[in-house]
Write a structure and sequence with these properties.
With about 300 residues, this protein is of the alpha/beta class. It has one domain (about 1-299): Aldolase class I (TIM Barrel), CATH 3.20.20.70. About 35% of the residues lie in helices and about 15% in strands. The strands form 2 sheets. Strands 2-3-4-5-6-7-8-10 form an 8-stranded mixed beta sheet, sandwiched between helices. The protein has a two-stranded antiparallel sheet with strand order 1-9. Strand 4, helix 5 (about 125-140) and strand 5 (about 145-150) form a beta-alpha-beta unit. Helix 6 packs across helix 8 (about 190-205) and helix 9 packs parallel to helix 10 (about 260-275). The radius of gyration is 18 Å and the shape is globular. The protein starts with a strand and ends with a helix. The model is unreliable at about 1-10 (pLDDT under 50).
């Protein structure tokens, strides 16, 4: 079993299976220009996703709303942090319409919308989130919409508010196993995140629900399998599992690079546990290939 994991020193050279291949700078720059024109952000850029060149080349992106500053300081995340005193924290009232305009311009058939955490707002930004879903639906009525939401501090009214806007997929990431929450997500809670997913399942029983996690932060295989069991108990249909890659030196170090065989083990375990789809691999991210994951899970 130990041969399936290679322990690496900090900032070590990436193993071959964790490296991204071809780059598409022209596509990347073209889409970035369009996003900046409308004052829009993507989590692809802010979180330094390794798949950004591929996704932008395919004409896909995950819109990040509620601004580009987060009120939380998760150890794995490179999204800029800030305080509510900064003027950048003011919500852009045109953002929902502009996301719809950009989705229409890109002729998207599948739209993923996520956000920073906005614990400074009474509703956690859920009304703004819901309005963005509605505007995207107006702009591209045939597109499917996946929302990747924060935990809204566990507020059931906020969860219901975004669900009432009519997304096709409800996604909330667990990110890591329970034992590591205090270090990886100090302002979040393992049970609270599970409850958010369970709330969505109870509120709209027929809706597809989804959650993602990272490995390589020091978790054990048994802890990952326990997390998958907890997700199934919460009614989650789809799980995504990817390798954590340290985005900056300020973020948590990679404890281990998990070999592809271990990702296959997690996929097989999840499918046996009852997930419709488990997308598991070193470069998998929660919204990576989301359209294809959704189609596979619907079969």
């Amino acid at each position: 079993m130990d041969s399936l994991v290679q322990i690496q020193p900090r900032r070590s050279r990436l193993p071959e299976w964790a490296r991204k291949g071809e780059t598409h700078f022209e596509s990347l720059n073209q889409l970035r220009r369009g996003l900046r024109t409308l004052n829009l952000h993507t989590v692809c850029e802010s979180a330094r996703c390794p798949n950004i060149h591929e996704c932008f080349h395919r004409g896909t992106a995950t819109f990040m709303i509620l601004g580009n500053l987060c009120t939380r300081g998760c150890g794995f995340c490179s999204v800029p942090k800030g305080s509510a005193a900064k003027k950048e924290f003011t919500l852009d009232p045109d953002e929902p319409v502009n996301v719809g305009r950009m989705a229409a311009k890109m002729a998207l058939r599948y739209v993923v919308i996520t956000s920073v955490n906005r614990d400074d707002l009474p509703d956690g930004g859920s009304a703004h989130f819901a309005e963005t879903v509605r505007q995207v639906r107006l702009a591209v009525p045939r597109a499917r919409i996946e929302i990747l939401v924060p935990d809204f501090c566990g507020d059931p009214d906020a969860v219901a508010r975004v669900l009432d806007a009519g997304p096709d997929v409800f996604n909330h990431n667990m990110e890591t196993v329970e034992r590591l929450y205090r270090r990886v997500r100090p302002q979040a809670g393992y049970r609270q995140s599970l409850n958010v997913l369970a709330l969505a399942r109870r509120y709209q029983p027929g809706l597809m629900t989804k959650s993602g996690l990272m490995v390589g932060l020091g978790e054990t295989p048994e802890e990952v399998e326990r997390l998958l069991d907890d997700l199934r108990a919460a009614g989650v249909n789809v799980a995504t599992i990817g390798q954590y890659l340290q985005p900056t030196r300020r973020n948590l170090p990679v404890i281990e690079y998990v070999a592809p065989a271990r990702f296959n083990r997690y996929r097989d375990y999840g499918l046996k546990a009852g997930f419709r789809m488990v997308f598991s691999g070193p470069l998998v991210r929660s919204s990576y290939m989301a359209d294809q994951v959704h189609e596979e899970a619907r079969r």
